[in-house]
Amino acid sequence: VEREFIHWLQQRLPATSRIQVGIGDDAAVVQVGSCESIVVATDMLMDGVHFDLSTCAAARAGHKALGVNLSDLAAMAATPLAAFVSLALPRDKARDVGRQFIEGMALLSGEYDCPIAGGDTNVWSGPAVVNVAVIGAAGPRGAATRSGARPGDWILVTGAYGGSMLGRHLDVTPRVREARRLHSEYEIHATIDVSDGLAIDLSRVAEASECGAVVKLDEVPIHSDAHEVAQRFANGPSPLEHALGDGEDFELILAVSPEEGRRILSEWSLEVPIARVGEFVQEIGLWSEDASGKRTPLSPAGFEHK
Ligand SMILES: [Mg+2]
Question: Which pTM does this prediction carry?
Answer without folding.
Answer: 0.90
